[in-house]
């Protein structure tokens, strides 16, 4: 698929792939409109859109259905999709890869937390034995039918077991066949800068403002050698803040928040011009009577 080819080419070229978080058709359309070179389906954002915290409460079928919706809107914009732990053991993870691949993802991300998982920037995360996650990675790599669909292995071990253990796990996941490595929540600028040079595969960095990782710039991450940067909470965090503000304004008696898009602006962002053009081209000619 074109989206998979694009993501592979971006990584091979050394171009930093910046993927904002998406979770519904509107956010996917806006990311495409702003011409980002990828999008990231955030499990946390999808959970929040269902009124749930990021505690592993979303199901395999809910997430796979959301993948299909997002790839349909994004078209040839590569979608990197969070799949948590694979929603269970090895056979569940294999089924997840099959569903995500059919739905058109360019890359699927799995993590080594115990099921049910937690947001990577919450406390008290538990990780499985590295050899157990290695076998899961081996199984999902074997299960995919298109080698261009990348498998991203995430480790959450740094928080509880330290930096060296996280790097050792990451290297073992490379040996198991992972295409991209994601060490979640490095705690210092030195750790952030060191990770790409310690891993023999492309690396991914997670931008989480006010999380457990210090602030960074895209320039810094490019210089360090990261291949992919995701911003999972950007859209749903901004949406929550804007909606909450608008609701408070209306509750206080003001019917115009001053920042709400007009109907024309909103619908143009999700394809109004295209659908109008299709309607005009194929309209039935009016016949006089």
Annotation keywords:
single chain, 289 residues, alpha/beta, TIM Barrel, 8-stranded parallel beta barrel, 13 helices, 48% helix
Give a short summary of the structure:
The chain is an alpha/beta fold and 289 residues long. The chain contains 13 helices and eight strands.
Describe the structure.
The protein is α/β, with parallel strands linked by helices and 289 residues long. The chain has a single domain (1-240), classed as Phosphoenolpyruvate-binding domains (TIM Barrel), CATH 3.20.20.60. 48% of the residues lie in helices and 12% in strands. It is built from 13 helices and eight strands. Strands 1-2-3-4-5-6-7-8 form an eight-stranded parallel barrel, surrounded by nine helices. Helix 2 (25-33) packs parallel to helix 4, helix 4 (60-74) packs parallel to helix 5 and helix 6 (130-143) packs parallel to helix 8. The protein is globular. The N and C termini lie far apart (50 Å).
Give the secondary structure arrangement, pairings included.
Blueprint: H1 2-13, E1 17-22, H2 25-33, E2 39-41, H3 43-49, H4 60-74, E3 79-82, H5 90-102, E4 107-111, H6 130-143, E5 150-155, H7 158-161, H8 163-175, E6 180-183, H9 189-198, E7 203-206, H10 218-224, E8 228-231, H11 234-251, H12 263-269, H13 272-281
Parallel strand pairs: 1-2, 1-8, 2-3, 3-4, 4-5, 5-6, 6-7, 7-8
């Amino acid at each position: 698929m074109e989206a998979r080819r694009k993501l592979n080419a971006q990584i091979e070229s050394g171009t930093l792939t910046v993927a904002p978080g998406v979770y519904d058709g509107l956010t996917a359309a806006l990311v495409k409109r702003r011409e980002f070179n990828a999008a990231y389906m955030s499990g946390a954002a999808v959970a929040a859109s269902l009124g749930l915290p990021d505690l592993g409460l979303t199901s395999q079928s809910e997430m796979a259905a959301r993948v299909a919706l997002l790839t349909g809107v994004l078209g040839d914009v590569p979608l990197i999709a969070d799949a948590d732990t694979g929603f269970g053991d090895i056979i569940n993870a294999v089924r997840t890869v099959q569903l995500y691949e059919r739905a058109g993802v360019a890359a699927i991300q799995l993590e080594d937390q115990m099921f049910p998982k937690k947001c990577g920037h919450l406390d008290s995360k538990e990780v499985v034995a590295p050899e157990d996650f290695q076998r899961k990675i081996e199984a999902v790599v074997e299960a995919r039918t298109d080698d261009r669909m990348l498998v991203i292995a995430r480790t959450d071990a740094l928080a509880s077991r330290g930096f060296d253990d996280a790097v050792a796990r990451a290297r073992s996941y490379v040996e198991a066949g992972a295409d991209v490595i994601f060490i979640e929540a490095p705690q210092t600028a030195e750790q952030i800068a060191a990770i790409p040079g310690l891993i023999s595969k492309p690396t991914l960095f997670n931008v989480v403002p006010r999380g457990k990782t210090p602030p960074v710039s895209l320039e810094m991450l490019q210089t360090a050698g990261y291949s992919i940067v995701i911003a999972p909470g950007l859209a749903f965090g901004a949406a929550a803040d804007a909606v909450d503000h608008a609701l408070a304004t209306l509750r206080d008696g003001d019917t115009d928040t001053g920042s709400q898009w007009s109907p024309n602006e909103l619908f143009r962002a999700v394809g109004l011009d295209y659908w109008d053009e299709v309607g005009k081209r194929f309209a039935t000619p009016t016949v006089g009577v």
